Amino acid sequence: MKSRFALLLLAGLMPATSALAQEYRHAVGISVGTFNLQSLDKQASPLRYSGSIRPHFGLAYRHMGENSRFSLRLSGGTGSMNPERFGARTFSTTFPDGKPFSYQVSSELYNATLEADYLQRVSSPDNAHSAVWVGGAFQESAWYASEVANFPWLVNSATFSPVVQLDHTFTSRHSFTIRVDMALIGLITRAIYANFPKSTSDNNVSAFFRQGTRTELAGKLKNVNLQVGYSYRLSPRMNVGAGYRVRYFSYPSPEKIRAVSSTLYLDSEFRF
Question: Which interval of the chain is the signal sequence (predicted)?
Fold first, then answer.
């Protein structure tokens, strides 16, 4: 009788054990955090501008094979951007009839980023604690501010980059990731030297992209991303974690721009 009871108990535990051991190949995730941007764009203004977005949201999808990974991520948000030296400014005057008038110069900031990458494992699968991945990433990113030196400001980039990523697992629940990529080629869209595109056939938006877009290689274009992340496995299906991403961007034409953006975030992921 005791042996029958033991067999029934073991049979009841087997599904739970198999669920814990199962490796799920797909995952969807959400993130929320803060985004900061510091930019010196001499084409737009001699002043250094600083912007922030709180909150900054992200959505992600991952497919995980034994020796390959594919991921897709969309992030963005809205905030504000102003000169670091002056901040938001208020201008006031009085009309001849004695009525006062004032307005504030404070730019809205919009950011949207789409990323896709494919990675292959190059380290030995026998190493249960560390994995090294290499591959390629595509990144489409846009920064838009409504008033930089009182005029709209847009920097759009679409880049392709090689990627190196290291994953390290401390225990079955705790893991750490570090990743770096640097653009080899990109399409960069900025204001032309005259600031305002001129066209008799295109509208202002079409003319801006047609006249202000250039293809550049890594020699002139500098676009580097560094990411570190920590993940805690709550269950076989659920992870939570935190991460930090920093991007350096530099481009010399028509006048030099240098910018650094950073994102600090919390995220969660569901596997299926």
Answer: 1-21
Q: Measured in whole angstroms, how far is the alpha carbon of residue 107 from the centre of its chain?
A: 21
Give the Cα separation of 87 and 205 in Å (integer). Answer: 28
- Secondary structure class of 84 (helix, strand, coil): coil
Q: Which amino acid is at 100?
A: P
Per-residue pLDDT of the chain (272 residues; tens, 9 = 90+): 445 544 444 444 344 333 444 679 999 999 999 999 999 999 999 999 999 999 999 999 999 998 999 999 999 999 999 999 887 777 788 888 888 888 777 899 999 999 999 999 999 988 889 999 999 999 999 999 998 887 889 999 999 999 999 999 999 999 999 999 999 999 999 988 877 777 778 887 888 888 989 999 999 999 999 999 999 999 999 999 999 999 999 999 999 999 999 999 999 999 99
The CATH superfamily holding the domain 26-271 is OMPT-like (2.40.128.90)
DSSP string, 45-74: -SS-EEEEEEEEEEEEEEEE-SSEEEEEEE
Largest CA distance in the chain: 104
DSSP bridge partners of 136: 118, 162
Token pair listed for 194: 């005259």
pTM (two decimals): 0.85
